[in-house]
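Lab meeting, action items carried over

1. Structure of the three-component assembly. Owner: GW. Status: complete.
Input record:
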Amino acid sequence: MSDYLQSHKKITLAHGNGGKLSHELITRLFVPAFTESAESLNPPEANPNEASGLQELADSARIIPPSTNLVFTTDSHVVNPIFFPGGDIGKLAVTGTVNDLAVMGAKPLYLTSGFIVEDGFEMADLARIIDSMAKTARECGVRIVAGDTKVVEKGAADRIFINTSGIGVLLPHAPAGAASIRPGDAVIVTGTLGDHGIAIYAGREGINLKTELKSDCAVVSPLVERAMQTCSSIRVMRDPTRGGLATTLNEFTHQRNFGIEVFESRLPVREEVRGVCELLGFDPIYVANEGKLVLIVPPSSAEDVLKALKEHPLGYDSAIIGRVTERAPGRVFLRTVVGGERILDMLIGDMLPRIC
Amino acid sequence: MKYITEFRNFEAAQALSREIHTVLAQSKPSGTQPAREIKIMEVCGGHTAAIHKYGIAGLLPSQLRLLSGPGCPVCVTSNSFLDYAVALAREPDVIIATFGDLIRVPGSRSSLLKERAEGRDIRICYSSLDALQIAKDNPSKRVVFLGVGFETTAPTIAASVKRAREEKVTNYLVLSAFKTMPNAMKALLESGELGLDAFICPGHVSVITGSSIYDFIARDYRTPCVISGFEPLDLLQSILMICRQITEGRAQVENQYQRAAQAKGNALAQDLLKEIFVLSDSDWRGIGTIPASGLALSPEYSAFDAAKQIPLKIEASRENPGCICGAIMRGVKTPAECKLFGKVCTPESPKGSCMVSDEGTCATFFKYARP
Amino acid sequence: MCLAIPMKLLRVDGNAGVVEVGGVERTADLSLVQPAHPGQYVVVHAGFAISITDEDEALKTLELYDEMIRAAGQAKP
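Predicted assembly:
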């Protein structure tokens, strides 16, 4: 790869037009990294009749999953900055989609990735992102089996956009879904809130905050597996990304006949995240996470699930933070630290720092 | 976090709440006469936000009614200021630097958010010093800082202007819409619409100005004033102090926020304000012109005044005819009484300033109302 | 209005200070509160320190709250 980078410094429109330069880009950068990553996994259950798109330079792959109970998801990634403390857009593209599969109760197996790159993008940055994706895929146990690359004019994309689609097989005792939620159910989060959003925000121009905070970008499959091993009737799981925990909880209550009460004093939040939020006027409950789960479980399983989660490093700060109520159907509300009450709506617009 | 977490203590909040109930119950008229409603107004967006964020109203007796006044600088910034800012953003060599609060506020026809989506150079800053740095980094452009806020914020921008002069930065400009509290509070009292029983006075404004600016309220209008901090215990304690004044028949200016605000205020900041700004009449959105309630750059600093250095002709400003933000900010109407509220005017598509700002009464009502 | 929070002053270099809350650091301009010393807490608004927190007053207020908690505890039926 490195001699390719020596002679090709920047992406140009020609790299996306399907001709010789396109082919070279794919065979010199994408294929080696993703093939090596996939082969190092060598899953024993992989069907030998499968064919990865990478070998045939095609944007399609023949896959033969071990079961037909499938989960299929897609996600597009446009994060800015593309390299941030604790991760990058490549890592996020893999973990984001793998997490979407995992929270449905599926074992993630295959990913595809589509790239839209702006003319003039640094080739070395692209190589770094590809490496990160290959590494993360290997760590998650998924294979990137097909992909596509387009190059657009300057200004038509903000440096690089990545779409990943993923397929997984449903495991036994997968969550039944939001319709199975009942008053009395417990709401659990698997760790501290707001790490990702604040880590990204702190370094922005005009904000200038110095902190050790890193994104929590991670794959949550180990936590999902533990939860499902402990409880066979999990109602629902989700990774609270954009819009934070509050938005995700609203997705559960939307147009349903139950409400969710959250106890502010039980929310796990890092001191640094608290500090930045106080300074800029943000609320951690609305800040994005990239390595956390929220689960709703029957009350009888809550303590056991909590214990199982806390035994894993990713779930060390897990906590029961709320409960499902008959009261206030369709709404999420917060019992504040001083004993008051307020409604938690979905996040509207972007979080903006304020002086007022 | 020191001086923050201690002032959010649950037991203390419960104790303060209980004491407020006790003080008011002890002063109730005998027999079956209901106690009269006590109207307390805060004039600070930070107080509006804190009251709702912590659910303070739920800890108070129903006899107390908390009103939100025109204390959100974004809400009271005139439409014409936004329109001027939009026009400046469209000038090819201008970079607009602004606090995040202004980005989504609708002007007559556009907003800074919309302009930014159209490709104009609009940057959010936490501090005016960051904007000054942008000016230094972009010598071929003119950086205009949108100066909104009250007496707390104005000295910080004043410092940035003085720094610009000292460092001979010639491309840093300020478009001022700064406002001052006392005459606005006087206008509210004079209007007689409200029958206010007390004011919760803005804690951080008072850090700068000191407490004497409120003396006329206690003296001439026999209305109790308590300067309050922003944590839930600060607000509860201030409300308790107000209830004691009312039940004891006193009308004084008291300071609950003693750990941060002193009676004489911040002399350095006050001197800086006098040096850089002059008091001027100011247009309060929804209220109208209030004399001597605004700050304009003094003639000596006109080289930094965007209004003088980049004069632009703009179309006449106009407000949405159904918007009653003005009445809401004066505390005479509630969001529920607005025809646009929740239907046409929502946080996603705000029609008036009360809905845009996080501290706007309508936005707060929309987001935080009790279930 | 006026979002401002108490932060610990770590270092002073003329008018420039480094302040901290929850382990997060930022620069703050100290020209409105001179003189200020490391170890003090300052109220920071829009990148400027506008006041030095009076520790004695803070403790007095907190003591007042403690008294009320004690009194409320004794008053329980």
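2. GW to write a short summary for the group page. Key points so far: The beta strands of chain C are 5-13, 16-21, 24-29, 41-45, 48-52. The domain at 5-74 of chain C is CATH 2.30.30.140 (SH3 type barrels.).
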